[in-house]
């Protein structure tokens, strides 16, 4: 699903390019809708380490070589 011209974070851009939706991310990472929304749209959002781990597990289903620092400033 493509955004409506809204700014996207690195995670948001990644899932958009692969045809993965925020709903897919919510289910795969087992995170809340509001957390997924912030992770996908706010490049300055700093999720907890637990949330980053969950999101990276979901992302690695699409790209096994994905690294945390590709998406989050640590």
Describe it.
By secondary structure, the protein is mainly α. 50% of the residues lie in helices and 0% in strands. It has one domain: Orthogonal Bundle (434 Repressor (Amino-terminal Domain)), CATH 1.10.260. The protein starts with 9 loop residues before the first helix and ends in a 14-residue tail after the last helix.
Looking at this protein, list some descriptive labels.
74 residues, 434 Repressor (Amino-terminal Domain), mainly alpha, 4 helices
Mean of residue pLDDT values: 93
> How far is the first residue's CA from the last residue's CA?
28 Å
What shape does the CA trace take? globular
Estimate the helix proportion, in percent.
Answer: 40-55%
Low-pLDDT regions = none
Query: Helix and strand succession?
Result: HHHH
Strand content: under 5%
Outline the biggest β-sheet: none
CATH topology: 434 Repressor (Amino-terminal Domain)
Please, what is the oligomeric state? single chain
Label the CATH architecture: Orthogonal Bundle
Number of domains: 1
Q: Count the beta strands.
A: 0
Query: What is the level 1 CATH name?
Result: Mainly Alpha
Number of helices, where a helix is a run of at least 4 consecutive DSSP H or I residues: 4
Counting helices, strands and paired strands, the structural category is mainly alpha
Question: Radius of gyration from the CA trace?
Answer: 11 Å
């Amino acid at each position: 699903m493509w955004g409506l011209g809204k700014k996207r974070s690195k995670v948001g851009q990644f899932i958009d390019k692969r045809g993965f939706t925020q709903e897919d991310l919510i289910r795969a990472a087992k995170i809340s809708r509001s957390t997924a929304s912030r992770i996908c749209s706010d490049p300055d959002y700093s999720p907890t380490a637990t949330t980053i781990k969950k999101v990276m597990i979901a992302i690695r289903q699409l790209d096994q070589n994905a690294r945390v620092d590709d998406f989050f400033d640590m």
